[in-house]
Write a structure and sequence with these properties.
With 155 residues, this protein is mainly beta. The chain is 5% helix and 66% strand. The protein contains one helix and ten strands, in the order H-E-E-E-E-E-E-E-E-E-E. A hairpin with a 2-residue loop joins strand 1 and strand 2.
Amino acid sequence: AIPNEIAKELNGLVGTWESEGKLGGEEQTGGFTCRWARSEDKKKVCLIGHFSYKTGDQLRSGITLIGWNAAKKCIEDRGFDDLGGNATLLWRIESPTLWKGDITIVEDGETIKAKADLVKKSPTEFVYEAELDNGETARVVFRKVKTQRKKKAKE
């Protein structure tokens, strides 16, 4: 099972997020939406997310699963995109505002590793900063999109 303190951290990712920033020398925009996937008895298993990012002229979209890796004692994020790429992000919670990560990205048949920080600025904003082993850096700001509740139609 996911430890309660980890489930609480992951709860903060539920919802819709927009992002903007830079990956290497290129602008990146996009976002993701996450929700809980649950077992038959309604226990939280992992987050399932849909993402879409445009980096330069290239668009990638796909699915991500975010859960607890009990063997490695960390949050594991596995993503797969529509261009055949994938990524594994292993996050360790250092403090209430900082996660540190080891990342392996496979794009266009090439594997790239990175070290990253996820800095929580507020419950509705976080910053992803990474240094890739190919010398590039990334800095992307994520902001939670406010959701509006649907009003029930009057009968």
